[in-house]
Amino acid sequence: MAPAPRVAAEGAKAPAFQLPRDGGATVSLSDYAGQKLVIFFYPRASTPGCTKEAIDFTRLSADFQAANAAVLGVSADPLKAQESFRDKFALGVPLLSDATQSMLKAYGAWGEKSMYGKTFEGVLRTTVLIDAKGNVAKIWHGVKVDGHADAVLEEVRRI
């Protein structure tokens, strides 16, 4: 029996990843060595909460850059949906597609959800902050969108 995959934990090394992003490039954790990285995991492109969250992170992108931090958005949506989402809302953060849910699971952002009395597996709205040394500095589970990007920026500036 294979060992269970390692799940991100505060203080531990961030799990490596390599995923396709909008525009066709591939992105990996090592691309961000020596800088802080914010990864926000969102359930579905172009839905109201996910749109507000992505717009908020885009609005603050210059502030994140000034704090030596990059921002990535990740969902299980296919690249075509990510690119449509980016274009429709003029999003300025890279959007990664994790169709196999490997990164989502490694970062604890995939699990059981329920809606309208039905239980299913899906993306759990989660944000992870990785420090410049590649360690998980903070994880936000069960994210409420309003004010979240601003709170993450405060934490980025603090570490």
TrEMBL record:
Record function comment: Thiol-specific peroxidase that catalyzes the reduction of hydrogen peroxide and organic hydroperoxides to water and alcohols, respectively. Plays a role in cell protection against oxidative stress by detoxifying peroxides and as sensor of hydrogen peroxide-mediated signaling events.
Sample GO molecular function, one term: thioredoxin peroxidase activity
Classification via Pfam families: AhpC-TSA
Reactions catalysed: a hydroperoxide + [thioredoxin]-dithiol = an alcohol + [thioredoxin]-disulfide + H2O
Protein name: thioredoxin-dependent peroxiredoxin
Gene Ontology annotations for the cellular component aspect, listed alphabetically: cytoplasm
PANTHER family listed in its UniProt record: AHPC_TSA FAMILY PROTEIN (PTHR42801:SF4), THIOREDOXIN-DEPENDENT PEROXIDE REDUCTASE (PTHR42801)
Family statement: Belongs to the peroxiredoxin family. BCP/PrxQ subfamily.
Quaternary assembly: Monomer.
Active site, UniProt feature: C50
GO BP annotations listed: cell redox homeostasis; cellular response to oxidative stress
Domain called Thioredoxin: residue spans: 8-159
E.C. number: 1.11.1.24
Keywords attached to this entry: Antioxidant, Disulfide bond, Oxidoreductase, Peroxidase, Redox-active center
CDD domains: PRX_BCP
